[in-house]
Amino acid sequence: MNNGHDIYNQRRKQSFPDEEDSCSNDEKPISDSTHKRKTRTMPEFYTDGRIRRKISSPMEASTIRTETKSGSDKLLWWDECDGPDYPEDEFKKEFRMSKSTFEFICSELNSVIRDEKDVTIKQRVAVCIFRLAMGEPFRLVSKRFGLSIQTCRESVLEVCSAIRTVLMPKYLRWPDANSLRKTKQEFEAISCIPNVVGSMHTAHIPVSPPPAPSLAAYLNKNQTEKDGKTSYTLTVQGVVDHSGVFTDVCMGWPGSMTDDQVLQTSALHQRANGGFLNGVWVVGSKGYPLMDWVLVPYNQRGLTWTQHVFNEKISEIQRVAKEAFMRLKGRWCCLQKRSDFKLQDLSVVVGACCVLHNICEMRGDGFECECEWGSEFVVVEDDDEMVGEVDLRSVSSMEARDAIAHNLLHHAICY
């Protein structure tokens, strides 16, 4: 009795009598082996009586379902992710954190997020974190989770607001005395500069063109010139400790503002003026002013060797903040794209991203910025600094900087 393959070949020869002649004798073994190899791989797609679909990319748009033998039980993609057999590395790829960290966040927010029959707390948190991580449009997120676009949008804002209210006071705050002591030691170990309690940097988040009255304020001239197209952004100023954990953030100011202007509007600046940072340094780039508590590199031409060595050590500390922002944007790809949130809501979303970044860092959920998860991940280059005319603010700070630079030359291990 002919099997199905023989019947198929007979019918094909009847329909295409010259087809066999189009393949040379040398090509036939290759063609046959290719067919056999493909035939052998087919059973890989049939396991335990069900058809399994491999998720080739988190950016797929369709809702993914798995049908069991009976055909009566259908699971959404999220239900598979939430299952005990879902691979840890795949979960981390799509949510930028381990399963244990995800469960920890759900438990922390359990008392403040709505728990409904159709949408559980865990689903709402998953929708939010997935949207922040992948930056997908809401229409694709809704297909992923089998929820309406409106429900997905509401879930993201609800969870981000809860993170800001409940988790930010716990996981994004100025260090206590013991933590500051540790931070000073670690920064001094890499730079030989004493009393450094933070590394400061200002990044820019792209936004959609705002209403006409605000266009000029949000226009980022540096980015516009660099990309060759009009760019609108808002700013995020952050101070990090030696491990890249944010200890202070100021966000939401228009992208046309310089680093110096953003600093002056921040609560950190107000607290520092009240004596909060007496005797310690926060290290910034050339876009910030030299102040009694802000230490920046020499910016004039014709640097002496002493000044050059000092600038190199400042750049070592600055790198900590810049790399922290790279990990922040790498984890939460929504920060790399023009947001479809309203400007007043975007600050809440960015703040939630900073808190989630801290939780991941504190819990050891590492993140490598160099394409850890293939071509889907985009390495974010450092933002161009918005540098304005920075006036001299303090003669005493100039003298203190000169003294530090001079002392570095007496530590041979530092250069």
From TrEMBL:
* InterPro entries linked: DUF8040, HARBI1-like, HARBI1_dom
Record's keyword annotation contains Hydrolase: yes
- Which PANTHER family did the record assign? OS05G0593000 PROTEIN (PTHR22930:SF244), PTHR22930
Q: Which cofactor does it need?
A: a divalent metal cation
Report domain DDE Tnp4 positions.
204-358
Record organism:
Hibiscus syriacus
Q: Which UniProt keywords apply?
A: Hydrolase, Metal-binding, Nuclease, Nucleus
Q: Where in the cell is it found?
A: Nucleus
Q: Name one GO molecular function term.
A: nuclease activity
Q: What is this protein called?
A: WRKY transcription factor 50-like
Please tell me whether the keyword Transport is annotated for this protein: no
Chain ranges of the DUF8040 domain: 88-163
Region spans: Disordered: 1-43
GO cellular component terms listed in the entry, alphabetical order: nucleus
List the biased-composition ranges (Basic and acidic residues). Answer: 25-34
